[in-house]
Amino acid sequence: xxxxxxxxxxxxxxxxxxxCFGCGRTGDxxxxxxxxxxxxxxxxxxxxxxxxxxxxxxxxxxxxxRRLERLRADAERPDDA
Length: 81
Fold this sequence. Notes:
The chain is about 45% helix and about 0% strand. It is mainly α and about 80 residues long. The protein has one domain. The chain starts with about 25 loop residues before the first helix and ends in a 5-residue tail after the last helix. The model has no long low-confidence stretch (mean pLDDT about 90).
C-alpha cells in the first residue's frame, strides 16, 4: 500500500517559516507523516500551496554546467556594437 506524500526530494527547512522548501511541511509533520491518518495527511496537504507561497527561496547557486551554458550562449550572441 502506497502512502500519499507531497515530498519532491528537495528536503531543506526554511529557518524563518519552519517549512520545507520542497513540500511545505514542517519538520514535525515530516517526521510524523507515516503515523498520520489519511485524513490528517490530506488536511496538511490542503495547506501546502499557501505555505509554499510564503517562503522566500534563497538564490540558487550557479553550477559549473549552467555557467558553461551561459558562457556559450553569450559567445553565440551577435554583438550589437
